[in-house]
Design brief:
Blueprint (H helix, E strand, L loop, with lengths): L11 H54 L13 E4 L2 E10 L2 E12 L29 E12 L6 E21 L24 H14 E2 L2 E2 L14 H24 L13 H4 L8 E12 L7 E5 L9 E2 L1 E2 L5 E5 L37 E5 L1 E2 L2 E2 L14 H5 L3 H10 L14 E10 L9 E10 L13
Antiparallel strand pairs: 1-2, 2-3, 3-5, 4-5, 4-9, 5-8, 6-7, 8-12, 9-10, 11-12, 13-16, 14-15, 16-17
Length: 468
């Protein structure tokens, strides 16, 4: 009988089954590994965002809590703020010790200056920060919006659309030993003079804003006769009003020039950084701050684009088309154009609710801005403007040149942030969103919101009690 020897081993079928099982296990491990790496990258980006925001907010909080109120002038003339920035006198340390200095924060648009391999400023260095910068980053990403039929409001649905997200940079500029808000390294034009043909568009822009500040309703507020308002106010008071409005306008222009409004092709302001012989790249506190979202994906013409916030419906708003023809979904604190439609269904068309922080139809939610106010019933009375003309009780009457009504309203109200009775705010809220690229291909970019509410010790005052 012939014996058969069986050799140990696997059949082809067994090998194929084993390989299939191994590949299944390996693919699962690969998916797990990739997912872990994505989570790690997202974690690092979140940590980076937190550290960047923490550093910026700590610096701002320190500067604000040491902001200075003059003993000679009470709490007057030491703070001015608009949504794009603020300027104030504070206690700042330097090489020569602790000094009072003017501190200005702005949300700045960088001018792209490419590196060219040349020593353009003749300082012996090539392509340093003073000579070349990259423009603020632009993210090509997507977001969800609500499309609402113009003719049938019940026809509404969510849609993910392609958008461009533009960012800005937070700058901190300190002027040592500048102890007031009215000394500027700029030769302001005379608002009462005539425009000079040789002026650049930037110089003419400054002149027109100053000129329009003192000319109201065909009346020169700086040259009002003393007997012009015999019952409500004297010409002396009206002239003092114009002087304070001029001071406020110059402070506003100072912030806007540092913020980069010379890049506005339609109506530029002077490039203050060039005039200062400085470069904004040397004063960066935080970058990639979300500023503007433009929709670039078309939608059917019968639909309007609406942005909704489930956590805060008060932020809901409509998309609008700006002067450049862009479809702006959101912007830092922009007032949209009139469209002649009662968009929010309150029976009014294109209203602004009388002041700049109203819930009207023309204002988009400001997701990166500075807000100012006082404590009232345990909350912040949000005002995006402080010690500016926009806070005047009779603001609308003043715009129309109705000075009788203006003085009547001014006498009847006491408004915190009124430039005729300026003071430090009790509270400042800093709010911004940092934008980050996706940590892996194919995923959308993302942003993280940060905010800080700072109480200013020297901003809290009490009424003076007269001695009996």
């Amino acid at each position: 009988m012939t014996g058969h020897r069986h050799s140990a081993g696997f059949t082809l079928v067994e090998l194929m089954v084993s390989i299939a099982i191994l590949m299944t296990l390996m693919s699962g491990l690969v998916v797990l590994f990739v997912g872990s790496m994505r989570a790690v990258k997202q974690g690092y980006q979140t940590m980076e965002a937190i550290e960047t925001a923490r550093g910026a907010l700590n610096i701002i909080e320190w500067d604000l809590t040491t902001s200075f109120a003059s003993r000679q002038y009470g709490q007057y003339y030491t703070f001015f703020g608009i949504p794009a920035g603020m300027t104030f006198v504070g206690v700042v340390g330097g090489d020569d010790g602790i000094n009072l200095s003017r501190v200005t924060y702005v949300l700045h648009e960088f001018d792209p200056r490419p590196c060219d391999g040349l020593d353009n400023d003749l300082d012996g260095q090539i392509d340093e920060a003073d000579e070349c910068t990259v423009a603020d980053e632009v993210f090509d990403t997507t977001m969800f919006v609500t499309l609402i039929n113009r003719f049938d409001p019940s026809d509404r649905f969510l849609k993910e659309v392609r958008v461009l997200v533009r960012t800005r940079t937070l700058l901190r500029y300190v002027e040592p030993n500048v102890k007031d808000l009215d000394s500027f390294p700029y030769n302001w034009p005379d608002p009462l003079s005539s425009a000079v043909p040789e002026w650049t568009p930037e110089q003419r822009h400054v002149w027109e804003e100053l000129h329009d500040t003192v000319w109201r309703g065909g009346v020169n507020l700086l040259d009002v006769d003393v007997d012009f308002f015999p019952e409500l106010a004297s010409g002396v008071e009206t002239g003092a009003l114009a002087q304070e409005l001029l001071k406020a306008k110059k402070r506003e222009l100072w912030i806007r020039m540092l913020a980069g409004e010379w890049l506005n092709p339609d109506w530029p302001l002077p490039d203050m950084w060039t005039l200062l012989d400085e470069h904004p790249a040397d004063y960066v506190v935080a970058q990639n701050i979300l500023w503007q979202i433009e929709r670039i994906e078309p939608v059917e013409p019968q639909y309007r684009v609406y942005v909704e916030y489930e956590e805060d419906p008060g932020k809901n708003h409509w998309e609008y088309i700006n002067a450049s023809g862009q479809n702006i979904v959101e912007e830092y604190n922009h007032w949209g154009g009139n469209d002649g439609v009662d968009n929010n269904g309150d029976g009014r068309v294109d209203e602004i609710d009388g002041d700049k922080d109203g819930r009207g139809e023309q204002r988009l939610y400001g997701f990166s801005s500075f807000m100012y106010g006082r404590t009232a019933y345990g909350r912040l009375d949000e005002k995006p403007w402080f010690n500016t003309e926009d806070n005047l009780p009779g603001y609308i009457a003043l715009q129309d040149g109705d000075l009788d009504t203006f003085w009547a309203e001014e006498a009847a109200q006491d408004v915190v942030g009124d430039p005729l009775k300026p003071r430090l705010p009790e509270l400042v809220e800093v709010h911004f969103r940092l934008m980050f690229e996706s940590p892996y291909p194919g995923a959308p970019d993302f942003d993280r919101p940060f905010s800080l509410l700072v109480g200013i010790p020297s901003g809290f005052t009490r009424a003076h009690e007269e001695a009996e």
